[in-house]
Amino acid sequence: MAENSFYATGKRKTAVARVWLRPGSGNIQVNKMTVAEYFGGGFDYMQKVAKPLALTDTASQFDILATLSGGGKIAQTEALRHGISRALLIVDPEHRGALKKAGFLTRDQRMKERKKYGQKSARARFQFSKR
Questions:
Q1: What pLDDT does 4 receive?
Q2: Is the distance from CB of 10 to CB of 17 less than 8 angstroms?
Q3: Which of helix, strand or coil describes residue 6?
Q4: Strands, DSSP E only, in the chain?
Q5: Which domains, ranges and CATH numbers included, belong to the chain?
Q6: 78: left (phi over 0), alpha (psi -120 to 50) or beta
Q7: Which of 8, 60, 67, 82 is most deeply packed, by most CB within 10 A?
Q8: Nearest to 95 by CA among 62, 60, 66, 58
Q9: How far apart are CA 63 and CA 56, in angstroms?
Q10: C-alpha dihedral over 5, 80, 105, 113, to 10 degrees?
Q11: Beta-carbon neighbour count of residue 5 at 10 Å?
Q12: Inter-CA distances, 20 with 47, 53, 68, 108, Å
């Protein structure tokens, strides 16, 4: 990317968002599509993604280029929000207080627990029979 771009990685559960912020007019591009095209209708994904920009009054200052992988749509939006927040910290560390108070800098690390050998699932055992 260019010299005046800022990179950060956002994560939630198994979703990973690689985010680049470049000076621009406020366009958000996700996997070479707009947010509306990528996430579709229903839940207001754009509102959730643009929250850190609105909180720091930088919505029209940066263009955002992001690549998302893993997880579901909700996890991907929150990973993208986390990545944008972390990139905004690189741009200006003064934003830390507002972003931290809103909870955008915290990574949600809850993932599905793996299945263990000799068991039915992660925690459930096979039924025990004494005789």
A1: 86
A2: yes
A3: strand
A4: 6-12, 15-23, 28-30, 33-34, 62-69
A5: 6-102 (3.30.230.10)
A6: alpha
A7: 82
A8: 58
A9: 15
A10: -130
A11: 14
A12: 19, 14, 12, 21
Residue-wise DSSP of 81-102: HHHHHHHHHHH-GGGHHHHHHH
β-pair partners for 16:
11, 69
Phi, psi for residue 126 in degrees, rounded to 5: -75, 150
Strand partners, 30: 33, 66
pLDDT tens-digit map of 72-126: 999 999 999 999 999 999 999 999 999 999 999 999 889 999 999 999 999 999 9
Task: Give the 3-state secondary structure of residue 75.
Answer: helix
For 19-77, write each residue's pLDDT tens digit: 999 999 989 999 999 988 999 876 688 889 999 999 999 989 999 999 999 999 999 99
Asked whether residue 2 carries a pLDDT value surpassing 80, the answer given is no
The structure tokens listed for 130 are 């004494």
